[in-house]
Each structure stands twice: as C-alpha cells, then as structure tokens.
Amino acid sequence: MSILGLKKKQPKTFKVKVITMDAEMEFSCEVKWKGKDLFDLVCRTVGLRETWFFGLRYTVKDTYAWLKLEKRVLDQEVPKDSPITFHFLAKFFPEKVEEELVQEITQHLFFLQVKKQILDEEIFCSPEASVLLASYAVQAKYGDYDPNFHKPGFLAQDELLPQRVLMQYQMTADMWEEKITAWYAEHRGIARDEAEMEYLKIAQDLEMYGVSYFAITQNKRDTELLLGVDAQGLHIYSPNNKLSPNKSFPWSGIRNISYSEKEFTIKPLDKKKEVFKFYSSQLRVNKLILQLCIGNHDLFMRRRKVDSIEVQQMKAQAKEEKARKKMERQILAREKQMREEAERAKEEMERRLFQLQDEARLANEALLRSEETADLLVEKAQIAEEEAKLLAHKAAEAEQERQRLEVTAMKTKEEKRLMEQKMREAEHLAVKLVEQSERRLKEADHLKQDLTEAKDAERRAKQKLLEITKTTYPLIAAYSSPPAPPEPADFSYESASVRLDFKDSDMKRLSMEIERERLEYMEKSKHLQDQLKELKSEIESLKLEEQQQQQASLYGLHGEARGYVQEPVYIPHSNRNSAYMSQMAFFEEV
C-alpha cells in the first residue's frame, strides 16, 4: 500500500451562512450533517443553551420552512445557493418571558426579533405603547440619559417607531424624539438586560405577539379564514381582523390534531364538543402548521412539569449571574458616583484654584493701586495740611468778620431802635399836627363865621346909622336954637366914617391872613404826610437790608468753613440815615 493510500479522503462540504438578529456567520458543513448538527453548531457559536425556542428558517418558493433537526440538511428543500442562507430565529414564544427566558442571550435575541416585528408592523402596537417600547429600546442601547451627552437629534438615525404610527400623527421627528426622551429619562439606573426584559414584558401583552398566521378555509366553498398558532393554542380569525379571534382552542382543551393532505382536524378533549375541521391549499403549509402545533403543544406541556436538571442549573446559574452582575453594577455605580464626585471635586478645586489665582492677581493689582493711592494720599495729606492752615487763617478772619458783623448788627439794632423811636415820635407829632390842623380849621371856620357876622352887624349898623342920620339931621338943623357949628358935625361923621372904613379894612386883612395861614398849614400838613410815608418806606427798606446783611454774614461764615470767605456787603450808616435825619430835622422845625 502506498503512502497516498494511507491518507483519509477529505469529506465533501458545503457552505452555509446563518443570519442572526445581530450578526452573520458562515460555516463549512459536511454533506452528511443533519439539521441538528448545524443547529447545535450555531447555538454553540452564539452561546445559547435555551435551544428549544429557536430554529433555522429558510425560504422555499413563496413561503418559508423550518430546518428539520432529524433529517440531513441537503435532503431537505433548502435553497441550492452557495452558501445556503438560514435565519436563526425564535420559532416558539414563551407564555411569560420573565419566568421562562433564563439566559441573557436568549432575552437579547427575543428582544431584537420582537422589536423588528413591531417596526415591520407584523405585530400591531398602539402609538402610546410604541413610544414606551421605544424608550426602553433607547435605554438598552444608550444606557442612562445624560443631557450633556445626549443632545437633541441623537435619535435621528435610529428606527424606533412603526411607519404607521409616524403617519398617523402630524408630528415632526423632533417632536417624536422629545416624547421618547421624556420616557427615556425616567428609566435611569436600568441595565441593558433589564430594559430588554421590560420591553418584552410589555410586548407579550400585545394581541399579535408570538402568533403565526396561515390562510385557511373551513370547507372548500367557504370564504377564507386565518389560523393563528401561538403558545396558548389555536385561534380562528377573520381575514381583516388579526387582533380578536372568532374562536379559540387552548392546548389544554385539544385532544388530538391530525391532517390528511389538505384537511386539518382538531379534536377537543371534551368528546361532547364538535370536531373542528379546516382546509389549507398547500401541503407544505400544512406540514408547517402541524410542526408548529406539535412544538407549541410540547412546550405547553413542558411548562406544566417540573423543570429538568439542565433548566434548574441554568436558572441557578442565571440567578447567580444576575446577582453577580447586579453587584458589579452596584460597584460600578458606586465607582461611577465616586468618580463623578471626584471629577466634581476636581472641577471645584480647579475652579477654586482659578478663583484664587484671580483673587491673587486682583490682590496684587490692588496692592499696586494701594501703593499708588498711598503716594497720592501723602500728597493729598500735604495739600490738606496746607489747606487746613489756609482754612485756619480764613477761619480766624471769618471769626473777626463775624465779631465785626455782630458789632455792626448790634449797632444796626440800636439804630433801628432809635429810628423806630423817632418814627413813633414823628407819627405822634404828625397826629398832633393833624389834630392842630383840624383845630385850626375849626378856628378858621369860627373866624369866618365871626367875620361874616361882624360884616352883617357892620352892614346893619351902617344902615341904621344912615337912617338915623337922615332922620335926625334936618330936625336938628330946624329946631336947634343955637345952630351948631358945622365943623364939629362933619368931623364926627368923618371920624365915624373913618372908623367904619378902618374896621372894614382890618377885617379884610384879617380874613386874608387867616386864609393864607390855612393854606400854608394845609400845604405843610400834606408835605408832612408825604414825608411820613417816605420815612416808613425807608424804614422798611432798612429792615430788609439788615436781614440781608445778617444772611450774608451767615453765608460768609459757612463759606469760610468750606474753604472760602464771602465778603459781606457793607452799607455806611451815614448814607442810610441822611434822608431820615433831614426829615426829622424838618419835623423838629415844624
């Protein structure tokens, strides 16, 4: 035997590409491999132990099929492409995800698949639930919300909501992001696996979660129906309503499921109930329905039994792993908190250092300014000392001026008092003159009256004398024996006439003198009244000048205290009293 004959022949292989929800893998498989060999290889590669939920799906014509584990891969109706493409997906869904999904990888694969089904609208979800689910998806991807890091627009590239929800409302992408971020901010402290589990717990309550739909008819002439297969049992739907089933057959109430070519028969456990039959047009679809029914029923019965040793070990390991991760997260959270506190303390110290440096710089600048200020203050002190001396000198001058003003004020007060006294005397004299004038006027009136009476008496006397003369003179001439000589008679008449003429001239002269004196007296009295008015106005002006002098003296004193002295205005007393003295002299003369 030759050496070449000793060598084993290399087995023939074929290429396989397996696409999971987050990765793509290629394997080289032997021709004799069964479906279980490939499936186990994929599970080992992924690290999955809960294999009973998953399967390898491939596309056949216009439908899909699941790779059978007990048959060889190439003996099944797999595509003839190279490499052969399979999708590693969840084939069966748990009733309660929190109790049945043990491994974190299992949760993650379910989370990715359910999320894709919701976004592709294979599972109907309301807008409110879609926003809440999107917030948990963001928490699982980005961790805790940090407004300093997660700026507006950070979700622009993420597909988080079904297109139907986006088209249902007239809202912009920024508005949707704001709504999602509001929920996302409330999930602080939730780890990635916890966020994914919360996502699945909400999704498992959706009506279309975990349901596989197939088109059927109840008999060959009836309209089409939909058959739904899930973890709870079988459900019959109307074609336009996948949410509410018309009839349901739970696994606990089904005794047997069988099919013959295109006819399916569901026998209930209660023999009194009617057997339900339906038809499917494709044999391949019938096989797929039966395969899903058997697998879901087996899992349904398995959940009602005690967990196997393997499952118990996985749950214990998962529990330990969760506890360990929780402890790690707590330690990480403490370390993160300590690091944040240290960073804040560092920032605070840096800020304090910068503040102290600024304070030191300001202090140096203030020191320089204080030195300059000190020099200026020394100069100002010298100037202030000189000003103080000058002010002291001015203050002495102001004191002298104040004393002089006080003396002047005293003299002014004395002069004022004398002037007031003289004014009172002048007023008294004026009153006396007025009274005397009135008395003289009365006397003049009496004299005029007497003069008038005297004139009347004189006139009457003259009249009587003429009458007597005319009457007696002829009688005397006729009856007198010795005729009287004419010279004496003529003398007496002439003398009487002279006396009468003299009395008349005296009266006229006296009347003229009285009238002249009265007129002069009236003129003097009027002149005196004018002088009195001028004197009063002069006294009032003197009072005002005295008040102004006092205020000027006070302002002068205040001005000296401020560094200047206001020169008072001094009015000589001789000029102020000249008119007054001349008037008083006139009154004294009167």
UniProtKB/TrEMBL annotation:
<keyword id="KW-0539">Nucleus</keyword>
<feature type="domain" description="FERM">
    <location>
        <begin position="14"/>
        <end position="304"/>
    </location>
</feature>
<keyword id="KW-0832">Ubl conjugation</keyword>
<protein>
    <recommendedName>
        <fullName>Merlin</fullName>
    </recommendedName>
</protein>
<dbReference type="InterPro" id="IPR019748">
    <property type="entry name" value="FERM_central"/>
</dbReference>
<feature type="coiled-coil region">
    <location>
        <begin position="315"/>
        <end position="464"/>
    </location>
</feature>
<keyword id="KW-0966">Cell projection</keyword>
<dbReference type="InterPro" id="IPR011259">
    <property type="entry name" value="ERM_C_dom"/>
</dbReference>
<dbReference type="InterPro" id="IPR018980">
    <property type="entry name" value="FERM_PH-like_C"/>
</dbReference>
<dbReference type="InterPro" id="IPR035963">
    <property type="entry name" value="FERM_2"/>
</dbReference>
<dbReference type="GO" id="GO:0005634">
    <property type="term" value="C:nucleus"/>
</dbReference>
<keyword id="KW-0472">Membrane</keyword>
<dbReference type="GO" id="GO:0003779">
    <property type="term" value="F:actin binding"/>
</dbReference>
<dbReference type="InterPro" id="IPR011174">
    <property type="entry name" value="ERM"/>
</dbReference>
<keyword id="KW-0597">Phosphoprotein</keyword>
<keyword id="KW-1003">Cell membrane</keyword>
<dbReference type="InterPro" id="IPR000798">
    <property type="entry name" value="Ez/rad/moesin-like"/>
</dbReference>
<dbReference type="GO" id="GO:0005886">
    <property type="term" value="C:plasma membrane"/>
</dbReference>
<dbReference type="Pfam" id="PF00373">
    <property type="entry name" value="FERM_M"/>
</dbReference>
<dbReference type="Pfam" id="PF20492">
    <property type="entry name" value="ERM_helical"/>
</dbReference>
<dbReference type="Pfam" id="PF00769">
    <property type="entry name" value="ERM_C"/>
</dbReference>
<dbReference type="InterPro" id="IPR041789">
    <property type="entry name" value="ERM_FERM_C"/>
</dbReference>
<keyword id="KW-0963">Cytoplasm</keyword>
<dbReference type="InterPro" id="IPR011993">
    <property type="entry name" value="PH-like_dom_sf"/>
</dbReference>
<feature type="binding site">
    <location>
        <position position="287"/>
    </location>
    <ligand>
        <name>a 1,2-diacyl-sn-glycero-3-phospho-(1D-myo-inositol)</name>
    </ligand>
</feature>
<feature type="binding site">
    <location>
        <begin position="68"/>
        <end position="71"/>
    </location>
    <ligand>
        <name>a 1,2-diacyl-sn-glycero-3-phospho-(1D-myo-inositol)</name>
    </ligand>
</feature>
<dbReference type="GO" id="GO:0042995">
    <property type="term" value="C:cell projection"/>
</dbReference>
<feature type="coiled-coil region">
    <location>
        <begin position="518"/>
        <end position="552"/>
    </location>
</feature>
<dbReference type="InterPro" id="IPR029071">
    <property type="entry name" value="Ubiquitin-like_domsf"/>
</dbReference>
<dbReference type="InterPro" id="IPR018979">
    <property type="entry name" value="FERM_N"/>
</dbReference>
<dbReference type="InterPro" id="IPR019749">
    <property type="entry name" value="Band_41_domain"/>
</dbReference>
<dbReference type="InterPro" id="IPR000299">
    <property type="entry name" value="FERM_domain"/>
</dbReference>
<dbReference type="InterPro" id="IPR046810">
    <property type="entry name" value="ERM_helical"/>
</dbReference>
<dbReference type="Pfam" id="PF09379">
    <property type="entry name" value="FERM_N"/>
</dbReference>
<dbReference type="InterPro" id="IPR014352">
    <property type="entry name" value="FERM/acyl-CoA-bd_prot_sf"/>
</dbReference>
<dbReference type="InterPro" id="IPR019747">
    <property type="entry name" value="FERM_CS"/>
</dbReference>
<dbReference type="InterPro" id="IPR008954">
    <property type="entry name" value="Moesin_tail_sf"/>
</dbReference>
<dbReference type="Pfam" id="PF09380">
    <property type="entry name" value="FERM_C"/>
</dbReference>
<keyword id="KW-0175">Coiled coil</keyword>
<dbReference type="GO" id="GO:0005737">
    <property type="term" value="C:cytoplasm"/>
</dbReference>
